[in-house]
Amino acid sequence: MQSLSYPLSKRRMIPIYSVMTLYAACAPIAVSGGLQHLTPLPSSVLLTFTAISFLFLSIISNRELISLKSVNKVGALTSLSIALPALLSLIGVLTASLTLLSVEYVDYMSESLVNRLINLGLYSVLTMLLLYYINKEAQQTTSALIFGYTIGAGILIVGGIWQFLHFTIGYPMPGFETRAYVHSVESDVLFNFRLTSFTDEPSFLVPFLIDGLLIGSLLLSRKTYFLYALFAVIVLVLSFSVSGYLNLAVIGCAAFVLLISKKGISRKTMLYSILSSLVLVGLALAVFPELLLNLFMPVLGRLDGLFDVMHHSRLYMLVFPFIWLSDYSMINMLFGFGSGSYDFLARTKFLSHQGTLSGTSNNVFVDLLFEHGIIGSLLFTGVFLSILLYLWLKRNNHLYVGIAFLLWLHLGVTSMYRSDFASPRFWLIVIIVAGLIELARRNKALNQFGKEPFLKAKVTT
Predict the structure, then answer these.
(1) How confident is the model at residue 183 (pLDDT cuts 50, 70, 90)?
(2) Are 56 and 129 in contact (CB under 8 A)?
(3) Total of domains in the chain
(4) CA–CA distance from 443 to each of 68, 89, 138, 237, 338 (Å)?
(5) What pLDDT band is residue 460 in, cutting at 50, 70 and 90?
(6) Which of 53, 70, 85, 183 has its CA 20 to 30 A from that of 103?
């Protein structure tokens, strides 16, 4: 790959774009449980704070005037839809602290509340700074972020292949504590492990893999992207993540619809593709029924109790916050219990069949409902769906808008099973979407790194 090519007048900005690239490359692995505890501060927080410091120092040293009037509205509205309700939720915090008289709530206030507000503050500042740089130089900023993120997702792909070799032939690998074991399955399985790469569990890994599939298509050459996508899909399949399979199916169908709506594929070709796929699947099931059954048993064996609220932990933690929210005052229903207050539920509520709740429902929308109340939840959901509708309506205007739509839809799907709105990944996807929209609006292309990318935007000069 070639290095970024900058005009002479902009070479002083190379260190800043390098920081952006490094931040995006480290984001996928920074949230790993093993790395989070290596430093006094969580690695994701330390990484974000360092990036903000460099960006601020650049602005100060260059004596630039920061104006946020012209920044991309998608990024700004998303940040506002979380930051503003987080501040309003302090009304709920005050109300709950005066009425609940709970030791557990006081513990939450002194720990999780402070940490979450600091996290959201850091990501809000980082988002606005990167939006400022996108407004200033959309091409270089977006290219740097996409380049770095593709590398970061690639590291997880390599980690997944490495882990597969470790489990199958004993190839040495550092001992990361992950949920790689197969659980809730009583039948025989072909592989008694699930790939997690350097993340904590399969559902943490899958979003990064699909991010890489979408973003890498704009950067990598056809041959490189084919290998990148092939290994990414192999790792995803062997993660045996139910949510990951559904996620990939939704994005695949959406991409198919985009191709049809842009007339990038004829109906005849579409029909042949569907029929060929069905025939291949049918043949595989007919020739290797037992092999396929054992291969996918880590997924199939968990489907029986998937929708049993009282015995499925994740579903229980998704449904009952709607009930628990109404157990308290009207003010808390409207404004929530404060940022990170799902931790309060983890201290006071129990699963119906075993143990306590975790510190999150693993769903952004449910977490925000309890933490920011009905007002905050409606604001965020309304903004998110409005952006999705906007991107859908503009999808045929430019290749980058089509990819931005898929990324935003993917972010919505992953938000159903990963509550990562206080992590680098969520905000990087928001910023990359904003960058792609700006490039489409200005009719500019991403920087090319070597050969022509798999998907290339048509621009005029």
Answers:
(1) low
(2) yes
(3) 1
(4) 22, 41, 11, 37, 42
(5) very low
(6) 85
CB-CB contact of 368 with 85 (8 Å): yes
Q: Match 């799907």 to its residue by tokens.
A: 413
Q: Which tokens go with 32? A: 């790993």
Whether residue 449 is contained in a domain is answered as no
| Half-sphere exposure at residue 196, Cβ-oriented, CA atoms within 13 angstroms | 22
Structure tokens that stand for 348 in this block: 């006071």
Q: Could you please report the per-residue DSSP string of 202-266?
A: HHHHHHHHHHHHHHHTTTSBHHHHHHHHHHHHHHHHTTT-HHHHHHHHHHHHHHHHHHHHTTSS-
Residue 120: name the closest of 91, 68, 80 by CA: 80
Task: Quote the pLDDT of residue 171.
Answer: 78
Domain that holds residue 132: 10-442
Q: Cα dihedral angle (148, 151, 152, 153), rounded to 10 degrees?
A: 120
- 3 state DSSP class of 436: helix
CA–CA dist 152, 147 (Å, integer): 9
pLDDT band at 354 (very low <50, low <70, confident <90, very high): low
Taking a C-beta distance cutoff of 8 angstroms, is the pair 204, 196 a contact? Answer: yes
Is residue 38 packed enough to be buried (19+ CB in 10 Å), middle (13-18) or exposed (0-12)? exposed
Picking from 322, 310, 307, the residue whose alpha carbon sits closest to that of residue 350 is 310
CA distance linking residue 434 with residue 134, whole number of Å:
8
Q: Is 451 inside any structural domain?
A: no
Q: What does each C-alpha distance from 253 to 48, 243, 415 come to in angstroms?
A: 34, 15, 18
Distance CA 109, CA 457 (A): 49
330 contacts 375 by C-beta, under 8 angstroms: no
Per-residue pLDDT of 240-258, as tens digits, reads 888 889 999 999 999 988 8
Predicted TM-score (pTM) of the model is 0.88
pLDDT at 70 over 80: no
Q: Is residue 373 part of a domain?
A: yes
